[in-house]
Amino acid sequence: MRIRTFDEYQTAYQKSVDDPEEFWAEIAQNFQWRKPWTKTLQWNFTEPSVKWFIGGKLNITENCLDRHLAERGDQPAIIWEPNDPNEAGVTLTYRMLFDQVCRFANVLKRNGVVKGDRVCIYLPMVPELAIAVLACARIGAVHSVVFGGFSAQSIADRINDAQCKVVVTADGAYRGNKEIPLKSTVDDALIGCPSVQKVIVMTRTRTPVSMLKGRDVWWEQEVKQVTADCPAEEMDAEDMLFILYTSGSTGKPKGVVHTCGGYMVYAAYTFQNVFQYEPGQIHFCTADIGWITGHSYIVYGPLACGATSIIFEGVPTYPDYGRFWDIVDKYKVNILYTAPTAIRSLMGFGLEKVDNHDLSSLDVLGSVGEPINEEAWHWYDDHIGKNRCPIVDTWWQTETGGILISPIAGITKTKPTYATLPLPGVQPILVDENGKEIEGNGVSGNLCMKFPWPGILRTTYGDHERCRQTYFATYPGLYFTGDGCLRDEDGYYRITGRVDDVLNVSGHRIGTAEVENAINMHTGVVESAVVGYPHDIKGQGIYAYVITEGDAGGHDAELTKRDILATVSRVIGPIAKPDKIQFVSGLPKTRSGKIMRRILRKIAEGDTSNLGDTTTLLDPAVVDEIKAGAL
Ligand code: 7RM
User: What spacing in Å lies between the alpha carbon of 192 and ligand 1's midpoint?
Assistant: First the structure.
């Protein structure tokens, strides 16, 4: 399963194209299956229907835990670094993690959870988050982790969409110098969530919380009532493992569904190969487990490979902007996997807090979540990797389950800002607007995939038609990523960003339609249009054009803006707050009523010299007004 040279990469790649079933069957042999599969792959991209390792039976936690006990039961599986560096951390060996997962799995059972039930997890970055995730997987319950930065309304939407039976949360969370109430947010959410029968609450901040009799129970008390004996549920390879909500260009976030067998094989294979993980290495992925990066490269991928994975509760700038380097130095981190936005924000503080740490343990640096600009790439390379650590710029999505296009550390020659080459099993294709393949090198187009890999999403929860429409209908026969892409003279891929109405703000994926809906819920707002604009640190910032009833540009415009931000925070969460709000009296629309976002994007970018063709506009005068008032 391990690629060691560029020749081996090329051989593996060729084989994965010539005989994908045989290629993935060999890799899947490296895992523990209760029963072997009878057919490796069945698929079509029209329904779509993709099934891997058909008939195979397994439990992913037997692969992430049980399997390692004999050989590395006493090796750390998880190292937890708290928000406050003066608080003691926690190290869980594989045996300890196994024990705690089994116990919490029994707690879930005690509270009525059975195979197939959905469990919503809303926790800070504490070991219990990984424990809760794995406990669900152990008993065949489907986890739906919701990032701690989402609002009560967003939690409620996700709980209702998946009809979750149980919620696992904490009293509160520490993030930098802030204390964030979690349970009270869950309480607000649950007013509109009739499917929820039980709430399991762990204590973290010990802030006072309301505990409803018959519904709310304490994590710590529950685990005392159970044994650590919990046999793993036998799962079909295509049984659902988890749902993870992600934003698209229209409507509410979709519940991306991943299944047990293919996801496991893909997360582990890509972890091992992209980062060239060696036994005993310490892996530090700075993402939150509330995003796919945390699912695949903090929890499942590393644990399936028997690695030691760091869970960091805090933020890169607390108590100071040297926190990442503290952690690298303290635990002798070998693999560091972070986002360009973090690199860009730390770059701005200079080298003082970098150079007073020993970073010599680092072997591999990873980047994920958004395009990495040349300057950040070089800063990472020069000052963190000291020009001796390969940088892997890993391109992938919630829907892909794992990394699709990336260098293999130390093996693929890197090129700043390029995700370079597809991993074995991945068959990218660039197409033009009409879906016609763009062949050859030195070209760009819309990035699609023409063949399934084991980690591809299977459906969007409760709405398969939406899955088909979103990913498989734009270009029949292809999976459409929503990203634009350039293929250079060497056949190297560079992702240029979304071509749809999805924003990437600090590596967080946010739909413009979602933000518009939230703004439109604000009193007095008639209509709004949201676009992205280049932001030095966040990658993209959110620019909102808002029409209000009456005169919003009057003396209380600033106050109204702050109120709108409060509404967006309440409806979606603080991560979706616009950076700029411009009040306008109209929006540039075509005669058929479509907002011309191209024009709004140009103005938000500060480039008003050439707005392109505006002849189809209903009222061209509105553009001059918007230009004049641009922020
Ligand atoms: C892993 C993750 C997916 C979107 C994707 C891209 C962008 C992710 C890179 C990247 C350029 C990268 N999942 N993206 N990685 N763009 N280079 N290395 O982020 O579902 O939250 O977002 O993120 O636009 O479509 S995600």
Answer: 32
